[in-house]
Amino acid sequence: MSDQPLLRVSNLKTYFPVKSGGLFRRSLGQVKAVDGVSFDVNAGETLGLVGESGCGKSTTGRSILRLIDPTSGRIELDGVDVTDLSKKELVPFRRTAQMIFQDPYNALNPRHTVGSIISGPFQVQKVDPPGGVRAAVQELMERVGLNPEHYNRYPSEFSGGQRQRIGIARAIALRPKLIVCDEPVSALDVSIQAQIVNLLKDLQEDFGVSYLFVAHDLSVVRQISQRVAVMYLGHIVELASREVLYTRPLHPYTHALLSAIPLPDPDRQKQREQITLNGDLPSPMNPPSGCVFHTRCFRAEDRCKVEIPELVEVAPGHVLACHFPMTEMVIGTRIEGPNSGLVEMPNRDIEAPSEVIADMAEEGRGGPVTADYVGDPDRD
Amino acid sequence: MAITESVAKAAPVAGRSLRQVVWSRVRHDKVAMTCLVILILLYLIAIFAPLICKVIGVDPYAFDGASISDSGGAPIGDWGGISRAHPLGVEWGTGRDILAQLLFGLRISLLIATSATIITVFLGTVIGIVSGYAGGRTDAVIGRSMDLILAFPFLLIILALSGVLTQRLSSLGVPEGNPSRILYMILVLSVFGWPYLARIVRGQVLSMREREYVEAAIAMGARTPRILFREILPNLWAPILVYATLTLPTYIATEAALSFLGIGVLPPDTSFGAMLANSVSYFSVVPSYLFIPGVVLVVLVVTFNLVGDAVRDALDPRSGRV
Ligand SMILES: Nc1ncnc2c1ncn2[C@@H]1O[C@H](COP(=O)(O)OP(=O)(O)OP(=O)(O)O)[C@@H](O)[C@H]1O
Ligand code: SF4
Ligand SMILES: [Mg+2]
Questions:
Q1: Residue pLDDT tens, chain A, 380 long
Q2: Does any domain span residue B63?
Q3: Do residues B138 and B130 make contact, with C-beta atoms less than 8 angstroms apart?
Q4: Which residues on neighbouring strands pair with residue A9, listed in sequence order?
Q5: Which of A59, A277, B83, B115 has the fewest CB atoms found within 10 Å of its own CB?
């Protein structure tokens, strides 16, 4: 039972056909929004999924829930292969996995009352909770921190944070085992973000739900995830436990994302250097050859342009797709890169915010990355 | 005074449905309320026209030889023969009562315009939703059909085909004569009217289809009918209501124009258009033939438009929370 992950995604690809308009729609190509993604989510855990806008995070989440039909690959949820289930066969599976959306304004139908929004899952799945739907809904409202007396109010009367709570109540109504949280706090004020994250954590403790927690930066993900996957242009480039990913990341892109986290101390924020990536995200219609990151990578070499780096497990639980991983040796030193000339690498506290380092030190898990973790004979 | 007013305004808005919001806005609009009352009265008059005529003692079908001159049939008396027995005068040549004709004409005009509006709204909404939600080839085919209909020389076709098609309706079992002609008008108005609404609805559905609440419904396991009718349709009431209230008066006017051109109801029945058409020959002698139906027609169209505007304003999201 427990040796099997709750969710297993294998080589998931989701391409969107791009067609010309009009009656005779010619195919113009494909947007490779998700291009061969594999990961597991274990029962009761949170996997963070991070990457910049447009890299395919939402498409991954939506494909897993079969809101979009994947092009190929396999999705196994709770031991069932749901990849090829028909719309009808999917209906019972919908109880197992739910979604929380980014935009709390678009996620709730403005013409429905809160009560009818949260009772939707009961109606659709024909679930009759003991004590009636209304009582169950009001209990849910209370659980997520809403006033149950507001049952008959409309979404327009609630603030963004309260609306997100309504969306959470709807998602947990039937006690799913997995919730895909698609940037659930990105649209909220910072002060409210923490409340929502804490609510999600509480709910996880209460009934052991797993989250696939999507975010476009690494700071929110750190608060909730046990493991973190970093995505770039439809690919997972690095996946590791939170501790490892925040202190000893190996992928150049992960380093860039980490350096973008603002530090709480303004002086240190001013001092530290950020890795700014050159250029924009390339078009997923026409991804770069070899390593998809090579057009912007400060460590790219000729090999990167031709040879696709395999996603390999460089240490237990730490997978990486890069020919020339970052090691302890390069952190804080000048390195050469063909794209950007000399790049000043960030120093230690940039990619490892101090409290995390403190955590690490306490647990005795700091320490340098050794060469055999990296598994790249060319480099060392 | 001023303080209590501002307090009343600042009072929290309790949860309200679309209907409550529209109603509370329209209720505070004096012009709209007046027009609404007039409209309700006009509908009541139309519905109870036979009863009202009986009470007043007029009859739209009865010839009254005594009220017209034996030679030429001109009404006896000023203003088309206004008298106690015929409050708005009588018809040239037959002596039929104008007031009674007006009431029965109102009945037919409202019948045609209201039925055509209902059918238009139904067709436009259903086709627009299907087109927008299905997308792809279905959408493209529906879109081109709408273009085709809108490109038709509407008036010419209606006039050219009226004879053939009313006969076809009769052969399909609709009573011959005016019932067929009335049905023809209703169908013509609806068939050429729905694409405008369908386009509006399609556009709304296109944008709504991408909304996350639709996705949330799919994620719950909702099937297409529930998504269309529970998630999408409730958000369409506002544009549909506005379209309907603004379309009805144009149908009244179009019906009058078509009757004027000769494809409307035939005597002894009548409508506004038929009355106006008749009035033309006698205008220099009895101008009231033109003015009486003309004034009622204008009042009808204007009140409908004012109510439509008020509904549109009440639903306008820019004017506050909806
Ligand atoms: N329905 C669609 N049709 C065509 N292309 C799409 C569709 N949905 C997404 N895409 C494209 O797929 C790519 C990945 O989009 P996706 O929404 O998954 O990114 P994301 O990582 O969630 O970004 P964001 O942070 O902006 O939400 C983008 O290039 C986007 O334009
Ligand atoms: S494979 Fe090359 S281009 Fe890709 S991330 Fe590693 S170093 Fe950069
Ligand atoms: Mg997204």
A1: 456 899 999 999 999 988 776 666 677 788 999 999 999 999 999 999 999 889 999 999 999 999 999 999 999 999 899 998 988 889 988 999 999 999 988 899 988 999 999 999 999 999 988 889 999 999 999 999 999 999 999 898 899 999 999 999 999 999 999 999 999 998 888 889 999 999 999 999 999 999 999 998 888 899 899 999 999 999 999 999 999 999 889 999 998 888 877 776 777 666 666 677 777 888 888 889 999 999 998 888 899 999 999 899 998 999 999 999 887 534 443 334 443 333 344 443 334 344 433 343 333 333 333 333 233 333 33
A2: no
A3: yes
A4: A39, A75
A5: B83
In a domain, B139, yes or no: yes
Q: Is the ipTM of this complex over 0.90?
A: no
Q: Separation of A112 CA from ligand 3 center, angstroms?
A: 25
User: Ligand 3 mean position to A151 CA, how many Å?
Assistant: 30
Using beta carbons and an 8 Å cutoff, which residues of B are at the interface with A? 13-18, 136-137, 140-141, 144, 211-213, 215-223, 226, 231, 234-235, 237, 321-322
**Alpha-carbon span B200 to B239, nearest angstrom:** 8
Helix H or strand E segment including A240:
strand A235-241
- Distance from residue A188's CA to the centre of ligand 1 (Å): 21
CB A334 within 8 A of CB A275: no
- Are B47 and B174 within one domain? no
- Between CA A183 and CA B148 the distance in angstroms is 45
Q: Which run of H or of E encompasses A195?
A: helix A190-207
Tell me whether residue B274 is in a domain. Answer: yes
Task: Identify whether B76 is part of a domain.
Answer: no
Please report the domains of chain A, with CATH numbers, ordered by start residue.
7-21+28-225 (3.40.50.300), 250-373 (no CATH)
Chain B positions in Cβ-Cβ contact with residue A152 (cut-off 8 Å) = 15
For residue B123, the distance in angstroms to the closest alpha carbon of chain A comes to: 22
Query: Do the Cβ atoms of B216 and A167 come within 8 Å?
Result: yes
Phi-psi region of A40 (alpha: psi -120 to 50; beta: other; left: phi over 0): beta
Name B10's Cβ contacts closer than 8 Å, sequence gap at least 6. Answer: none
Atom of ligand 2 nearest to the CA of A303: 2
pLDDT (tens digit, 9 = 90+) per residue, B107-160?
888 999 999 999 999 999 999 999 999 888 888 999 998 988 888 887 788 888
Residue pair A185/A220 in contact (Cβ under 8 Å)? The answer is yes
CA distance A25 to B139: 12
Q: A157, B15: Cβ pair inside 8 Å?
A: yes
Question: Is the C-beta atom of A343 inside 6 A of ligand 2?
Answer: no
- With a CB cutoff of 8 Å and minimum separation 6, the contacts of A283 are none
Q: What spacing in Å lies between the alpha carbon of A59 and ligand 3's midpoint?
A: 7
d(CA B277, CA B261): 8
CA distance A298 to A338: 7
CB < 8 Å & 24+ apart, contacts of B15-19: B15/A113, B15/A150, B15/A152, B15/A153, B15/A154, B15/A157, B16/A154, B17/A111, B17/A154, B18/A111, B18/B234, B18/B237, B18/B238, B18/B315, B18/B322
Rounded distance between C-alpha atoms, residue B245 and residue B118, angstroms: 11
Expressed as residue numbers, the domain containing B39 is 25-55
pLDDT for residue A308: 92
**CB-based contact B15 A153, cutoff 8 Å:** yes
How far, rounded to the nearest angstrom, does the alpha carbon of residue A114 sit from its chain's CA centroid?
A: 28
Same domain for B49 and B127, yes or no, is no
